[in-house]
Amino acid sequence: MRLMRFGPSMLFLRTSDVEGGESFLKNLFGVEELSVDEAWNQSGELDTIIFVTPAEEWKTVLNLKRGAFLVKMRSDSVLKELLNAKAPFDRANLGPQIILLRVPKEAEKTSEIIPKRYGGIETSFARGINEGEERDTLLLVTDKKLSEPLSIRDIKEAFLIRKNFIEVYRTLRTDLPIILFKLLPEGWKEITIRIYDTEKRYEENIERVLLVLEDLDLGYVVSEGWDWDYPRPFMRIKVYKIKLITWEDPLRIKFLLKGLEYRDYQRFADIDVFVEEKKIPWVEVSKEYASKFELAKAAREELESLLSDDTKKRLHEIEDRLLEGKKPNE
User: Fold this and answer.
1) CB neighbour class for 204 (10 Å; exposed up to 12, middle 13-18, buried from 19)
2) E-state strands within the chain
3) How far apart are CA 101 and CA 142, in angstroms?
């Protein structure tokens, strides 16, 4: 579970020939002009979004009417390429460095904590870029997972901090437990996931569960191992246990994992979720569904809509082997 990362760098290139400068970037980096929204929505950590502006401009102003160029490289590498290629630009300016912070969906105290603790000024994404300078930090708060690009709509709050981003990043990294303690008054939830497969295909089923937990960023896996379960008196079965700490609703996790028990009415394994050693029965998450199969089908559809393409492909490959009765190395 990732709670903090860097955003893209904003690089402003000044030139007396804007059109010529844009053509130069297209040829040098093999990129096309995008809208500001498109460039941001497709950007990842430490990518560079470039704006070509007239030479007389000095301020890092985000003009939404102008296009932008997304280069999947760090800003220092971009500047190195421009220098070596003798780029036709008069000078370069950088916008404020961006840090992304993930908080729980129900968090409401961020606007109280950040200004008080770090002197942050509450702002918006565009205004923060316009008012911030190279030595400032723009802290963007979201409740979405940080393992993939975010859209501008995913930004819940923005704070401009008049401090160097390295100092802010190091302080935030140290302060994260304190911030989350204040944002999560009830604390983290600890849940236990137990996997049981009558056909003993544990390696594949464990991998499936861990793939989903990791891809959806549902929490921190703090321990794994074998354990015993007692479904009925005098009956003992061996299960694989995964302990997870999370801020997600345990019922939500139970629902999503229900989508891993079946695929098209083909059963893979029993996946149970426990909170404080109490099992969550499937009926608690199936109020809208008439049967366990309807619940599993709905959970599967939602699960697949949330997973990344790479994870979905990997998941299907594992499940295809299970359905064919093959082992990984066969």
Assistant:
1) middle
2) 4-6, 9-15, 48-54, 69-71, 91-94, 97-102, 121-123, 137-142, 155-161, 189-196, 220-232, 235-246, 262-263, 266-267, 270-275, 278-279
3) 6
Task: Return the pLDDT at 286.
Answer: 78
Give the residue carrying structure tokens 């704006």.
Answer: 51
Expressed in angstroms, the distance from the first to the final Cα of the chain is 33
The average confidence (pLDDT) of the chain is 92
So what's the pLDDT on residue 128? 95
Distance CA(180)–CA(104), nearest Å, equals 9
DSSP state of 34: B
Q: Which of 183, 201, 233 is the last residue of a domain?
A: 183
Is 145 part of any domain? yes
**170, pLDDT greater than 60:** yes
Residue 181 has pLDDT above 90, yes or no: no
Whether 160 and 204 map to the same domain: the answer is: no
Residue that is last in its domain, among 153, 183, 213: 183
Question: What pLDDT band is residue 288 in, cutting at 50, 70 and 90?
Answer: confident
Residue 305, Cβ neighbours under 10 Å: how many?
A: 8
**pLDDT tens-digit profile of 212-262?**
999 999 999 999 999 988 877 878 889 999 999 999 999 999 999 999 999
Using alpha carbons, list the distances in angstroms from residue 119 to 113, 139, 311: 9, 11, 40
Burial degree of 264 (CB within 10 A; 0-12, 13-18, 19+): exposed
**Which pLDDT score, from 0 to 100, does residue 232 have?**
79
Which of 139, 36, 34, 18 has the alpha carbon at shortest distance from 89?
18
